[in-house]
Design a protein that fits this description.
Distance between the termini: 56 Å
Low-confidence stretches: 5-21
Structural class: mainly beta
Organism: Kineococcus radiotolerans
Protein name: Lipoprotein
Shape: elongated
CATH topology of one domain: Immunoglobulin-like
Order of helices and strands: HEEEEEEEEE
Number of helices: 1
Keywords: Signal
Oligomer: single chain
Largest sheet: 5 strands, mixed
CATH class of one domain: Mainly Beta
Length: about 140
């Protein structure tokens, strides 16, 4: 004979089972890199190509050659970012040696779940925009999907 508590306990556990079921997440499989994104689309398209661009997130920098006026977005990856302010620096020099941008600003990275909430990887992104006069200003970082 089974103990009397077995049946009520079993029924109670069965009642809890649906609420404890594993819930599937809608996750994508995109990758992502922490860093600062720079939008330089406001720069004049009269400066001769190619442009030499150096973008930095704190002390981590990337160089890029711009050979098309449509390619005015830059990214400086830095996997050490978190929610603390980051120094964003951008330098762009035209083919004739004209300095189009040589500017620095502070930006605050935002947590970004690139594959959906709770799906990972978790990255930190900040934004900066180049004004028409060549100055750099912090811009809102993108929201998580």
């Amino acid at each position: 004979m089974r103990p009397r508590w077995w049946l009520p306990l079993s029924c109670g556990l069965l009642a809890l089972l649906p609420s404890c079921s594993l819930e599937s997440k809608d996750c994508t499989t995109m990758g992502g890199v922490s860093g600062v994104g720079f939008d330089a689309s406001a720069l004049p398209t009269t400066a001769p190509l190619p442009w030499q661009a150096t973008s930095c997130a704190d002390d981590v920098c990337q160089d890029q050659v711009v050979d098309d006026y449509q390619n005015t977005w830059f990214h400086a990856g830095n996997d050490q970012l978190n929610g603390d302010p980051v120094t964003a620096h951008l330098k762009i020099v035209a083919a004739d040696g004209t300095v189009l941008v040589y500017s620095t600003t502070q930006a605050v990275p935002r947590r970004h779940d690139v594959n959906g909430n709770g799906c990972g990887p978790l990255i930190w992104v900040a934004g900066a925009v180049v004004e028409a006069d060549g100055t750099l200003a912090a811009a809102p970082a993108p929201e998580s999907p």
